[in-house]
Amino acid sequence: MASRASTSSIAPISLATLSDPPIKLVDGVAFDYFLVEMTSTLRESAAFATARTKRIENEMLEAGLIPTQAPTQASSKKASTAPGPRDSTTSLTSNRPKSALVDEEDEPLRSRLENIGMHVGSCFAERLCAHRQPFDDTLEVMKFICKDVWVALFDKQVDNLRTNRRGMFQLSDAMFKPILRVSSYLGRPETIRKAKLYATFPAGVVRGILSTMGYSGTVVPEITAVPQCTLKVNIKLPKSEMSGAV
């Protein structure tokens, strides 16, 4: 009597591959180049979008479609000290370095970098947690980020993790790869300002992972000396974890 065929051969290999596709890796140098070019491209995109929004607002103001706002004392003082048409072409203030500009000008760029990082972080969480058991608490999630996620992204683990067990975490990396080669001829303040922009994307990745796992909070990169970076994570803990915190 002929033996029956094994049930494991009923499903073709192609279907098994589709259910669990092979991991596709990206070279580390290509990732660094992508981050640099992405930041530069999004800077131009953010500037164009901001200029377009201001132009539309001015057109709507001239057409009377939106009400005009009364000038505040600060804005009137700024307008009184602003250079005239002739001064605007000869004044040296127009040629001041970018480090002298307010940080609010980079806010559209930060927003775009963080949104892209959150999308990448969400994909990372789904991929790396596909065959893992559910995490017990937030500390286990942060350890997962410090080990598995950091190794997958930067080929190393986080150097230090601190927490007060009440939702505040600090992830410290002494050789943070995204800002390892950041420098500026304008000096240390401008270098740190640029480094904070390049650290926005990894901060978004961490926030995206936390959001996918059901945690809401903020992730703020702090840089005092390149290439050291500290990500300050403030998570809103569930009541069950808050009651167990010491």
From TrEMBL:
Classification via CDD domains: TRAPPC6A_Trs33
UniProt-annotated stretches for the region Disordered: 64-107
Organism: Candolleomyces eurysporus
GO BP annotation list: endoplasmic reticulum to Golgi vesicle-mediated transport
Family: Belongs to the TRAPP small subunits family. BET3 subfamily.
Annotated protein name in UniProt: Transport protein particle component
Lineage of producing organism: Eukaryota, Fungi, Dikarya, Basidiomycota, Agaricomycotina
Entry-linked PANTHER family: GEO08327P1 (PTHR12817:SF0), TRAFFICKING PROTEIN PARTICLE COMPLEX SUBUNIT 6B (PTHR12817)
Gene3D superfamilies hit by this protein: Trafficking protein particle complex subunit 3 (3.30.1380.20)
Pfam families noted in UniProt: TRAPP
Sequence ranges of Polar residues compositional bias: 69-79, 87-97
Gene Ontology CC entries for this record: cis-Golgi network; trans-Golgi network; TRAPP complex
